[in-house]
Amino acid sequence: MDEKPSSRRKVAWPRAAALTLLGATLSAPVTARPGNHNPTVVHRVTVGAPAGAWPMQRGDGARSGRTNLLFPTTPVVIRRIPLFADLATGPVVDDREHLIVATRDGKLVEISPNGEVALSVTLDAPAALGPVLLGDGTRFIVTRDGVALGISRDGAVTFTTPLALPRGQALAEPLATSDGCAVAAIGARVTKLGPDGEIRGVTELDESVVAITETPRALFLSTETGRVFEWTPPQDARAVGSLGGKPTSEVVASSASRLLAVVRNNTLVELALPDGATTTLVSIAPDVVVDSVAVTPAGEARFTTRAGWLLGYAKSRETFRHSTTPPTTLPVFSNPDAMLPPLVDRAGSVAFVAPSAIVGVVGPSGDVHTATLSECGVAGALVPEGPRRLAAFCRSGFIALIGEAPSPASAPLRSERAKGPRFP
Predict the structure, then answer these.
(1) Residue 44 CB neighbour total at 10 angstroms
(2) How much is the pTM?
(3) In what order do the strands lie in the sheet with 147-151?
(4) What is the tally of structural domains in the chain?
(5) One domain for residues 80 and 165
(6) Where among 171, 198, 216 does a domain terminate?
(7) Contacting residues for 311 by C-beta, under 8 A, at least 6 apart
(8) N or C: which end of the chain has fewer CB within 10 A?
(9) What would the DSSP string read from start to end of 125-168?
(10) Is the pLDDT of residue 282 over 90?
């Protein structure tokens, strides 16, 4: 119970191998330089925040786990889409509702809502980090060879920018910034690149960066010992405080002045950016928080636990509790890789995946509706795909699109009232 899968293991079955290969293949120093551009490709640069239902890991630069869409209120599987290769990294969703995935066989694939492959690009090396979507629609990834790669909407490679030799493993998920750029960390070195692949700033710390978060104020870099640095490129990063231990999740900006993180796998802490003060909000030991925290529009933190709970906390008190494990007389299936962090929509509804491959949606009033992903086995990722739609990536080889049931009798659904305090 004292060990938890890292938040960087979003798609656990291939991810560890990809990160190992990244460190192994960068065996000779590479000098960071401007991106290589294809002169035959017209590359329109747009400055601004990325569009789409889920343009990066945890949805936005704040890592809030929140989307501007609404979830289905009575979820049901409406389509099964074959997935012909394992995911190398977590999926993202663009403004055309395309699911964009990097696969272990070295491709970047886009899948339309009707299940057709809209684009397939063979990469020089498989992706190790990303993809994230930049403001101009560029698909940004870092390959296991340590190269930052930009791919346009039509599949053209727009830049290739080698990154510097890392000190340590690549652990932090890339981030698409609100000004249309990308930030990538390999070991202790963090690089900001423009949408054209040009390097806009570099900072190097004395230990590996494990999380990158953006607020309206600046970028914040969290290290493997829990130190937090504020970075405004092209200046050097400066220390602003400590989380009190290694963050075992994405570090979330709950507001412009506060960061949330899980440390020691079971303790939720808050860092006040103005003065660097750290506050422990709750410790759930001996239980373990699974992956990252989601923040509702009302500011409540929601997270799942290895013991099978979806919990809500606000102002250091429990506000919500629901069991994600169906009642049974059989032994509980407790594979940690089957647990995923929750998602939040703009109305405050929360979507989660239970270990038994059941997708649930908790409404703002506390009502819970679920849909079973038959033959899914274990779900490796859950993302919002479109209005009233979710996409669950099943390790048995398909994507389950989950939408609104036409009527209560159209699919086997279970509705109940969550136990414990209501959503405030």
Answers:
(1) 10
(2) 0.85
(3) 127-133, 139-143, 147-151, 157-162
(4) 2
(5) no
(6) 171
(7) 284, 302, 303, 304, 305, 318, 320, 321
(8) N
(9) S-EEEEEEE-TTS-EEEEETTSEEEEE-TTS-EEEEEEPPPPSS
(10) yes
